[in-house]
Amino acid sequence: MKQEILIVGGGFAGVWSALSAMRLLDLHGRTDIAVTLLAPKPELHIRPRFYEPNVHTMSAPLRDLFGAVGINFVQGVAERIDSHGQQVTYRDNSGEEASLVYDRLVLATGSQLFRPPLAGVVEHAFDVDGIEEATRLERHIEGLAQQPESAARNTVVVAGGGFTGIETATEMPARLRAVLGDDAPIRVIVVDRAERIGAALGDGIRPAIVEASRELGIEWRLGTSVASVNAGGVELADGERIEANTVIWTVGFRASGLTEQIAAPRDGQGRLQVDPYLKVSGQPDIFAAGDTARAATDDRGNFTVMSCQHAIALGRYAGNNAAADLIGVAPTVYSQPKYVTCLDLGSWGAVFTEGWDRQVKLIGAEAKELKRQINTQWIYPPVADREVALAAADPANPVA
Fold this sequence. Notes:
Pfam families: Pyr_redox_2 (PF07992). The chain has about 400 residues and is α/β, with parallel strands linked by helices. The chain has helices at about 10-25, 65-70, 120-125, 130-140, 165-180, 205-215, 310-325, 365-380, 385-390; strands at about 5-10, 35-40, 45, 60, 70-75, 75-80, 85-90, 95-100, 105, 110-115, 155-160, 185-190, 220, 225-230, 235, 240-245, 245-250, 255, 270-275, 285-290, 295, 340-345, 350-355, 360-365.
């Protein structure tokens, strides 16, 4: 019977883990080990793009790719991990319970938006966390034209002024005008606890956010937060009421709840602590990648963040090392010292930075073109060609 490397999760980290594991097995001529990926659908959702319109186009099919390289795909939702019995229980499309055994497991089930227990958030706020949720928001925006003219109809409130909140907010003016017309008196308002615009992104990037906000007409409510949401708007913690038929929640992400089923240290976001080979602390058969892993990116005290930039690389290393562990070859130390950000600022442009101190390198139209390449080319999976796909999964490759 073949040994099994099981990858749980079909996001960036999961897909690249599976490809990388298969690459190392192929290099060593090992056909006695199977690589299986368990995920709800045989497609990669391009999550970093969900703030854009046409969300239904933002997925990449995986069946042909997996078929080309020999990865087994199992469709289902993982529910329980038995680390002692080396088994994952899942629910298939028909709702039936089934299980998969493993010799090495890579947990790559990502993260989810955390909605706090505030009145009305679950019932009335939209988000761009998953493709279904982003599609629901898009349908809502498209339907605004059928609503009676009002200030609330023309207003969008974005809760959170971090990366996702800023990209969502700066895209909104164009999306609203496409539906309501160029003359519509639209308002986009970002509510953020911080005292300064873009505080979480640093001083270097702030001037671009400020300028883009001014040009696009985006308002900021700083030093406060959303206290409650209803069908007609939001109440802020400072007492202000904003009438808005569209409220988008972008605050707070947590690692997949499956991390809680593994006996290992976790950080405040629920991410599993991993060693330099991405093996979960205290778990000899389990690796973690993507948003489920807290990994040191270098020897200067920097750690991974929840982003596809890190998820792709983590996947390449985790899959490689899971296979290496089984076949008895040396694993590869995860290292990703280069850190960049490319923040989309809607029709104004974008801003591209390098380093953990976010030194601005490109701005405006030039950065926007780079962002377009990242979003439409670089983060997509490789073509369904065995040689090309396996070569792309080498941990030594840069992410871009």
